[in-house]
Amino acid sequence: MLPNSIRAQLQKQTNRWLTETAFIERESDTRGIYGEQVHDWETVALNVKCRVITGGGGRNMNEMMGNQELMIDQYKIVLVAGTDVSVDYRITVGGHVYRVTKVMDDRTDELDVHVLVERER
């Protein structure tokens, strides 16, 4: 484990490169007026500093859903340390909506949070 002073310096340097902001949501299930299940999104966090990694991390895939072909772009998003995020959360950055597919939580020192995401077009 790094000493707190070194950790603080590294975290400060990391945060300098987080030049975008994210809007984070999670899916919630509620009941409608007739007792039906209603899917909605609830806000987890606003204006979270982040960076979308596209260079080398943006991989395009095609996937069939029914009779329709979807283009799926995969990216990594780096968020400030301590950000509450989980699989299936939705992250909006610069008007693009991404779905979290994996949280990389096995990293040493936890100076930031890395998630793998997919964006459908």
Descriptive account of the structure:
With 121 residues, the chain is mainly beta. It has one helix at 4-16, and strands at 20-31, 37-53, 59-65, 68-80, 90-93, 96-104, 112-120. It has a six-stranded antiparallel barrel.
Write the layout of secondary structure elements.
Blueprint: H1 4-16, E1 20-31, E2 37-53, E3 59-65, E4 68-80, E5 90-93, E6 96-104, E7 112-120
Antiparallel strand pairs: 1-2, 1-5, 2-4, 3-4, 4-7, 5-6, 6-7
Largest sheet: 6 strands, antiparallel, barrel
Low-confidence stretches: none
Q: Please bin the fraction of helical residues.
A: 10-25%
Strand arrangement within the widest β-sheet reads 1-2-4-7-6-5
Number of helices, counting only DSSP H or I runs of 4 residues or more: 1
Cα shape: globular
Terminus-to-terminus distance: 41 Å
Mean pLDDT across the residues is: 86
By secondary-structure content and strand pairing, the structural class works out as mainly beta
- Count every beta strand, where a strand is a DSSP E run of 2 or more residues: 7
Rg from Cα: 17 Å
The H/E string reads: HEEEEEEE
Sheet-strand content, in percent, reads over 45%
